[in-house]
Amino acid sequence: MAVVRDLRVLLRFRDFRRLLTVRLLSQGADGVYQVGLATYVVFSPEKQASATAIASAMAVLLLPYSLVGPFAGVLLDRWRRRQVLVHGNLLRAAMATVTAVLIVGRVPDWLFYLSALCVTGINRFVLAGLSAALPRVVDEERLVIANSLTPTAGTLAATAGGGLAFAVRLLAAESDTAVVLLGAALYLCSALASLRMAPELLGPDAPAREPLARTLRGTARGLAAGVRHLAAPRRREAAWALGAMTLMRFCYGALTVLVLMLCRYAWSSGVDRGLALLGLAVAFSGAGFFAAAVVTPAGAGRLGPGRWIAVCAGIGALLEPALGLPFAAGPGFVAAFFLGFVTQGAKIATDTVVQSTVDDAFRGRIFSLYDVLFNAAFVGAAGVAAALLPPDGRSSALVVGVAVLYGTIALSLARFEAR
């Protein structure tokens, strides 16, 4: 296979192997820690999880990406990237250990969330540092291959970490603490692996010396300029695609909270069975993501990216209420598959529209804006779902409302593409 051949070529670079090891350990730890956080909030026997608690956990996991993300690169240009990887992972190991202590101590929820917020906030710097360091460990000829393979490898590592966390959570006594401590151990391993690289290897060669406040103000102005660039008439398709994707991400977030509540209360009578059902729902959704990656290139190529987004939204409008309103586990898993399919299919098409219609000089800023909208929509949806959902998660109003929103997206995009 071409992918295996490309990876074999890249692994000949010693420093690439070392950087990849840091990434795999770091993102594997992310998967463990995030599942540990989510299961403690939702599936601890001593806690009666509410939709509000779930929304709070999602905010902790995702808001740092929205708030810190656009400014992470500014700070990374001022620090040695290898030191960011070392100190960032050491800090996360320490804070994850603190989180485990807080779980044992049964402290107020706000203190637990503050600790988790520190871990996920630092994560943004580590991921940005890994991406910025990649050109320093492979040659220019193989940089595109490295850029395509390493994020995929990291995602697989995070998925494997999440699976490991589910297994520990089902098998170990005092498992919430054990899962979080496992994440802390993996963060520590990632920090130690970073020490195998020379401090100056990953750059930058000449760290930025401009006053930090001026640089941050410049970044904010750059984002505003990106918004103005996106508002120009000839980039209207990119603006419509980003708007549609933001609303579809909102739908995905609201239904994610609904599925969590159903797994916890409606579909199971025990915590362990509820956790197993959640694992199945995640697996079905992941299969939908994979199917979208296979089908979307042909579908978007035949119809055009904008029409493909409209088709994905239309599928959601038709199937989501048909499969969701029974509030049964079997149809719910099928709904999870299609939800993953339409969300990822629309995202791939949106990425294509933005890459092909936005000027290169503004592309980075537009994707930073995209990142903010993508995660903020998910968190906002969790908040709305928390207000609407009953304790067992069965809310016909939420299911129908999401279907109407999908239908509105599909019709609006279809009309725009027809014009």
Structure description:
Helix 4 runs antiparallel to helix 5. The protein is mainly α and 419 residues long. Helix content is 83%, strand content 0%.
Give me the secondary-structure topology:
Elements: H1 2-10, H2 14-43, H3 51-76, H4 81-105, H5 109-133, H6 143-171, H7 175-194, H8 212-230, H9 236-266, H10 271-303, H11 305-324, H12 329-357, H13 360-388, H14 396-418
Brief characterization of the structure:
The chain has helices at 2-10, 14-43, 51-76, 81-105, 109-133, 143-171, 175-194, 212-230, 236-266, 271-303, 305-324, 329-357, 360-388, 396-418.
Structural class: mainly alpha
User: Would you tell me the overall average pLDDT?
Assistant: 82
Strand fraction equals: under 5%
CATH architecture of the largest domain: Up-down Bundle
- SSE ordering: HHHHHHHHHHHHHH
- Approximate shape: globular
User: Any idea what the radius of gyration is?
Assistant: 22 Å
User: How many individual domains?
Assistant: 2
Q: Compute the number of helices.
A: 14
CATH C-level label of the largest domain: Mainly Alpha
> Tell me about the biggest sheet?
none
Salient structural properties:
single chain, 419 residues, Growth Hormone, Chain: A, 2 domains, 14 helices
